[in-house]
Specification:
With 123 residues, this protein is mainly alpha-helical. It contains three helices and two strands; from the N terminus they run H-H-H-E-E. A two-stranded antiparallel sheet has the order 1-2. The protein is elongated. The chain starts with 5 loop residues before the first helix and ends with a strand.
């Protein structure tokens, strides 16, 4: 810096100082004050207590739902019928009529005849 004249370094310093002052003028109004930080801390504390209450209420609700589900299943198992074959009703299987799905089956199926006077079909 010995080769640079003093007035030129003063000009550069002035430009740099002006740039820094401009930046500070822009940034300074957006910085938080002590009051802003105190307000933020109070809001965080309130939010934290609110979340704690919601967490406790949710845990109690989940426990209540689980207890009611367990009681319901226990009641259903208590009232369930036993697997004794003597107590089970007799269920018969009846043959079902298979609809004709192909032309070969339709041709092989017996034709329905009309009963005279009743209008009902008979096989």
């Amino acid at each position: 810096m010995a080769d640079i004249p003093k007035y030129q370094t003063d000009i550069e310093t002035e430009h740099r100082l002006t740039a820094l002052e401009t930046r500070l003028d822009v940034v300074l109004p957006t910085l938080a004050t002590k009051a802003d930080i105190a307000e933020l801390k109070a809001a965080i504390a309130q939010s934290r207590s609110s979340l704690l209450v919601w967490g406790i209420v949710t845990a109690v609700a989940v426990v209540a739902i689980l207890v009611s589900l367990i009681l319901f299943v226990a009641q259903q198992l208590q009232n369930a019928p036993s697997n004794d074959s003597a107590s089970m009703p007799v269920v018969g299987r009846f043959p079902t009529v298979i609809a004709a799905t192909s032309p070969q089956r339709a041709a092989a199926a017996p034709k329905a005849r009309q009963c005279p006077g009743s209008g009902a079909a008979a096989l």
